[in-house]
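Give me structure tokens for this 308-residue protein.
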Amino acid sequence: MNSTTGRGGGDGDSPDLVCQLDCVQGMVDALSSVRWKRNQDAVVEISEHGLVLVVEESGCLQAKVYLKRELFLAYEFAAEGRPRFGLSLGLFVDCLNIFSTPGHAPAIEIRYPGPDMQLLLKSVDSPDACIYAEIRTRIPDTVSWDCNFEPTGNVPVSFTVKSAILKEAIDDLEWPGSDIQISLQPDPPSVTFRGEGHGDLQIEFLHYANTDLLIAFQCTRSVSNRYKYKFLRAMTSNIPSSVLKDNRGSKVTVGRGGMLKIQHLVSVRRSSAQHSRGNQQPGHIAYIEFFVKPEEEADEEESPIGDN
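Here you go.
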């Protein structure tokens, strides 16, 4: 990464993408939510619909950040197909943070590719100076694995819980090297998290007992699967403080074979000037999805997961 103060710089010929964003912090929150370790590579795919950033680990955990074109002040896409490139996620987040200064967060322009296939960023409305940065990209080594998430039947097995409560529950279940069992049952409608270590710890959410806690619940047959704790923690450990403060919910869905999906929503807020004109749109949300494989895939004859 090179960051300099001065004019312009790095304008490539016929870029695939040129877009502008006026809320750097919202993008930082979204990307930080899938950053579970210091050195982490990501793959970015761009299209006419927006950007998708994908990170993976061990072929068992995958996270995606969806940044739809509606989130941007301007979005010009000129490529054929869906160009993909790899980069350092930590470097990308650190670079974006340069543009978020106390008291002033200028709009930024994102351009790809630069003359040497870099990802280029620069401020576009700073009255005093132009902040410019470039990030080296690479050709992705592999194609992202297909999580192949399929619903368990006509009625999805899912629940929605306050994000802060979900994070607190998983944090409390930490046992070194342990697995976490997640069970759902329809009668009484409940979700149980159970961890084993030096002892057993069980956390239960009852749907009818506290609808403010367990916001929504769908389950017609009992389901139970085990997951590595480190993967579950990665799905919740970096939920942005803005999501926790807004008291939002996270949706958890169990797919066929025990595949687990967790969805978070992160606001990419517009500037105060946009707010004053009443242009805040409900669509200005970054969608975060995590997928994690179970420790052992469920056997459909033994596990009551199937079509309804």
